[in-house]
């Protein structure tokens, strides 16, 4: 497994790791050499240019990378995994089902919609309190609310599914 | 001078105050909540006491416990930092009555300025210009709609007890009014314990200009020039600088004079800040007075050379101001970036976790004030401010160049921060030419969230990130992710103070 | 302005120069020897090249390789830092002839000032007072004994090619002369490639006062006031400060004027320092000129606000000085402590190893310039300077208080440092009242080595250390000790430049 | 093994580690609680006072401790080990034998004495070059040089035995 598809910034990059410290990125060959500083920090040399990179593993198994002041979340798959993922994704797209997740941990203050309501993108769904601020969360999909998994006054974890919208 | 000071706060400001104590040879006492046991402010204090469970109202907001502790351990003074109890006149009164010195203004001054509508009345009486609007809290939303129509939309609803952007709502027309009114009341109740809100005309595209003042207990007043804090998101300051490039000498003369008038009007002593909105024509309007140390005080320290926290302590101990107005001049330019644990692209959600890697920036003209260190927790319970990066330069361009350099050097792992977003801001024409106002981020940054603002980063950087991702996966390198990766030998003794 | 600068140095000064390049938007090129592959200066540069094996004369002193590399990669200028090739007029001449700009003075100026006896002749001609002694190298030790008797013992033997305390010996009488002469010649040969030594009368208990000057290529000269560097061990500066509390306004006027005269005498441009010895009566004597950036330049930067490295680069690029003498004034006080990897109690033996923990100090008025970061090596091959802690205060007392605070916060593991010894110095009356001279450490500290100076530390601290030792042993806690504890994924590509 | 003798700064401290986070130091009882920050850095609470301590293990197995700006090298022994060490030490004292070790790595430039020479404390023995400086190393013992293990021009490691002096 030396061929990877790396997704970041809505772009997909093809990376092949070749022998002798050579890496091919989107068809271009470069010298790449990695040194580890500690459990999070690395020094990556690309040809004659050094990059200090701080890495962390995200809850979903992806990597968060901080370099030159920029932060990227990357999804890395082998070529095979990528093909599978694309198939799965297409299936999901077909089902027209979209989970609306909590973007942060917080307290559900108010649920503004009911099961069965039709919603548009940008329509307020719930008010979540976090860090003493009320955050109005708006719909990221269009369709009908088929389930609501929370009630007012309960706390939710980050990424827990609040409700589901189907087209 | 005091021998022992209790610091009723946490995070970077507690650390800042401990440093001031150490430089003055004063013993510092830290208090901490359960989740903060590994915090930096706990590690570096001279004495530490567990004050209660993690939620703030059981720990850092627990007036009685804090005062009782201070008395028992012989602390002669309490420094409140900012936030928490710093502007709570009831707490300050309790401290005063217990015979302990409060490092800040009198409870009376705080009361006069804390209730925003009465502060507006006071300013009006003293000919300090205020933003048009009510000088009494609104009785109900219907009254609000009436007044809004009188002064003209858009208007701002604000918490009478407010500050720091909480309990504030813009309203553009009658139909939005009721819900905004209710939301503002709710937030206000939660943040300050009082639901009263009042109404102000929305000044279009103003700059936020504030003046740092200082007074001793003998009636001597000085100002330490202005700060500009117009780079805000949801009324929360993100980048501050001193001086403001928008303020010319004449305007500076007028606004600092107004600030001192405002401070005198409430018989103020210790450090305080008068916040103003300034329109395109350099007209300014009193917004509120912050009767405490500001988050952004380092930029003033860097252009004046005055250590504001040490001066606070000296004034509180009854010393006279040893600086006269004529001793002060603006030296260069300073900029501060507030580093928050937040995920910009995920609706600015607070990011919590344990700091697993922390490399500070260093070198000329660079200062970091930080509440974090290796292995400290970033909990959900409190403000997500991790640290503040401040840079100084002979002029604004140099300060900005140093900030860009400093932010690239600064590494934090364990939580996601907003550092990358500063990279974006520091490159924008609107920021560089100084024409930004308080709507800058809302107008120019927010439409690029999530993700689009990152497209500014060079393709080269994206390629490097992609290669790094692939190498991490291929080599199956283990990264510190969970809290269990770091050894913990045994538990702290229970030192709950009750 | 240049697009790309090659930095012919390592450690903290290479890092310092890279920061300046970054602030100016110039691409920085680092070179490194084999042992330095994980150095901070390599990590943060824009391009890096392995220049050769670890010994300096095969890497950082390799004139031809460095110039060849600079030409091949299109570097328009070379910054030499201090030490290594910075004052090597032959190297500078090679750079000049290769069409690359040398960021420093002309090879001619360096030559005039580099040979100490001819520099002394030049100063005498220009009425800059010099220390009594010879203005020609000694032919042999017998001639030396003759002259020593003429000017009177004690005398100093000094390397004509010297600087930085190498090749210097005090001689108190005829019987010591021959051996001291041979040792000084040997050291000189090793350090500078030339064995010539000359003789100076030993000024009793002088202070070391030096003046920072700057000149452009258009004949404009400024000075940036004086620094005092009297805290020395074996003629190596350990603590420096600016301004000197011993220098009054009248003396400052005279000594800065002499410094500018000295610089003009050798048609100087770029940054330079004129070192003087100052006796009890404030008479001063030219010691030598350092034709490069000084280690201690941060203290001058902090009291003047001028970024000396950026100014060096601008001047080298042919810009005019944009600062006039009247723009400059002394703002506050700054102190620098040089953190060395050395074991004070073990005969100041250099301590080598890998940096396994590094927590910087932070906060108001604190600056660190450092060559180390996590996992970088501290090798035996080079100067053991790890980093420099500089603090600023409105006055000397505040700068000292901040230095004490900063040093307590600063943590380095993997090598033993001299930080604890600063704790001792900063408490001594002789240091605090400013009465110290260049013999301060030799007279007051050295008699307490090994170990006795530590008895200053509180009993309380000793108890805590004892408890910690016992807990480490009982719990059998594993500590990072060996270089193998840190994972290393793979080897760097071989990028030897030949 | 809960009783230790800790030597530092030429003093010996008796430390007993008792149950419930209590430690007895030289007969005085305190609460002590240890948290580890990373492989070198610790936070030790003594009663209500926190101490940040950076530790490293020295080549000889002892500990180097940096706290509050002071650095101590400590030798920690259990009570039993201490007794044995004292006995050994007494024997060593009796033998009047003293090894003169290199205090730093370096190059032996000059050996100023010969085998069989009598030396006094403070007398120059060798010149060692390190960091481009010539260091004159002086005798720390009085007696006769019974062996010299180095020759001029060779490099020595730190703590390697240069010569031996017997009384």
Low-confidence stretches of chain A: none
Task: Please provide the ordered H/E string of secondary-structure elements of chain A.
Answer: EEEEEEEEHEEEEEEEE
Number of domains of chain B: 4
Number of strands of chain A: 16
Please, how many helices of chain A? 1
Number of helices of chain B: 16
Structural class of chain B: alpha+beta
- Most residues in contact: chain pair: A-B, 58 and 57 residues
How would you state the average pLDDT of chain B, rounded? 92
In what order do the strands lie side by side in the largest sheet of chain B? 13-12-9-10-11-14-21-19
Instruction: Sum up the overall morphology of chain A in one term.
Output: elongated
Biggest beta-sheet profile of chain A? 8 strands, antiparallel, barrel
| CATH fold group of the largest domain in chain B | D-amino Acid Aminotransferase, Chain A, domain 1
Strand content of chain A: over 45%
Give a count of the beta strands of chain B, DSSP E runs of length 2 or more. Answer: 22
Describe the 3D structure.
The complex is a heterotetramer, with two copies of chain A (167 residues) and two copies of chain B (498 residues). Chain A contains one helix and 16 strands. With 167 residues, chain A is mainly beta. Helix content of chain A is 10%, strand content 57%. Chain B folds into four domains: 100 residues, Rossmann fold, CATH 3.40.50.20; 70 residues, Dna Ligase, domain 1; 238 residues, D-amino Acid Aminotransferase, Chain A, domain 1, CATH 3.30.470; 48 residues, no CATH class. Chain B starts with a strand and ends in a 23-residue tail after the last helix. The chains are: A mainly beta (167), B alpha+beta (498). Chains in contact: A-B, A-C, B-C, B-D, C-D. At the A-B interface, strand 1, strand 2, strand 4, strand 5 and strand 6 of A face helix 8, strand 16, helix 12, strand 22 and helix 13 of B.
């Amino acid at each position: 497994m030396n061929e990877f598809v790396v997704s970041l910034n809505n772009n997909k990059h093809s990376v092949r790791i070749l022998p002798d410290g050579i890496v091919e990125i989107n068809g271009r060959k470069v010298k790449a050499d990695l040194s580890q500083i500690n459990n999070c920090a690395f020094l990556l040399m690309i040809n004659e240019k050094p990059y200090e990179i701080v890495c962390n593993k995200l809850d979903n198994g992806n990597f968060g990378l901080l370099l030159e002041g920029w932060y990227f979340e990357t999804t890395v798959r082998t070529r095979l995994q990528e093909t599978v993922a694309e198939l799965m994704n297409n299936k999901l797209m077909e089902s027209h089902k979209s989970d609306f997740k909590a973007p942060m941990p917080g307290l559900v203050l108010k649920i503004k919609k009911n099961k069965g309501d039709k919603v548009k993108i940008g329509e307020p769904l719930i008010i979540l309190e976090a860090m003493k601020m009320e955050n109005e969360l708006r719909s990221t999909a269009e369709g009908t609310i088929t389930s609501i998994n929370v009630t007012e006054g309960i706390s939710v974890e980050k990424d827990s599914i609040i409700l589901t919208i189907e087209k | 001078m005091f021998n022992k000071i209790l610091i009723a706060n946490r995070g970077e400001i507690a650390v800042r105050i401990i440093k001031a104590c150490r430089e003055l040879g004063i013993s510092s006492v830290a208090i901490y909540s359960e989740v903060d046991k590994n915090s930096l402010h706990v590690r570096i204090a001279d004495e530490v006491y567990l004050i209660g469970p993690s939620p703030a109202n059981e720990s850092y907001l627990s007036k009685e416990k804090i005062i009782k502790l201070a008395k028992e351990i012989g602390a002669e003074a309490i420094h409140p930092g900012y936030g928490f109890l710093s502007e709570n006149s009831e707490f300050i009164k309790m401290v005063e009555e217990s015979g302990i010195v409060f490092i800040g203004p009198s409870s009376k001054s705080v009361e006069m300025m804390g209730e925003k509508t009465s502060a507006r009345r006071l300013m009006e009486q003293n000919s300090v210009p205020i933003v048009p609007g009510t000088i009494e809290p609104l009785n109900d939303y219907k009254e609000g709609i009436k007044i809004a129509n009188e002064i003209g939309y858009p208007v701002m609803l604000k918490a009478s007890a407010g500050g720091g952007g909480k309990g504030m709502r813009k309203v553009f027309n009658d139909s939005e009014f009721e819900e905004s009114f209710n939301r503002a009341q709710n937030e206000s109740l939660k943040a300050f314990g009082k639901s009263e809100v009042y109404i102000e005309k929305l000044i279009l595209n103003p700059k936020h200009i504030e003046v740092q003042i200082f007074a001793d207990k003998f009636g001597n007043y000085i100002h330490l020039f202005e700060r500009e804090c117009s780079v805000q998101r949801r009324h929360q300051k993100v980048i501050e600088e001193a001086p403001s490039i928008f303020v010319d000498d004449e305007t500076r003369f007028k606004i600092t004079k107004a600030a001192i008038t405002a401070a005198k009007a409430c018989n103020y002593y210790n450090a305080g800040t008068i916040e103003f909105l300034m329109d395109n024509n350099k007209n300014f309007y009193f917004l509120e007075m912050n009767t405490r140390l500001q988050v952004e005080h380092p930029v003033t320290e860097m252009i004046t050379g005055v250590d504001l926290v040490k001066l606070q302590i000296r004034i509180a101990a009854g010393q006279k101001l040893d600086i006269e107005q004529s001793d002060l001049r603006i030296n260069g330019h300073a900029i501060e970036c507030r580093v928050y644990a937040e995920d910009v692209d995920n609706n600015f959600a607070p990011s919590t976790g344990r700091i697993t890697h922390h490399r500070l920036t260093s070198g000329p003209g660079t200062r970091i004030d930080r509440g974090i260190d290796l292995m400290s927790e970033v909990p959900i319970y409190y403000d997500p401010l991790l640290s503040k990066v401040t840079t100084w330069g002979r002029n604004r361009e140099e300060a900005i160049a140093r900030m860009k350099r400093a932010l690239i050097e600064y590494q934090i792992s364990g939580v996601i921060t907003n550092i990358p977003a500063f990279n974006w801001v520091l490159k924008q024409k609107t920021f560089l030419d100084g024409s930004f106002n308080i709507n800058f981020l809302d107008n120019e940054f927010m439409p690029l969230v999530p993700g689009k603002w990152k497209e500014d980063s060079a393709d080269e950087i994206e390629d490097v990130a992609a290669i790094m991702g692939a190498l991490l996966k291929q080599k199956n390198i283990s990264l510190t992710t969970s809290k269990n990766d770091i050894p913990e030998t045994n538990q702290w003794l229970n030192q709950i103070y009750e």
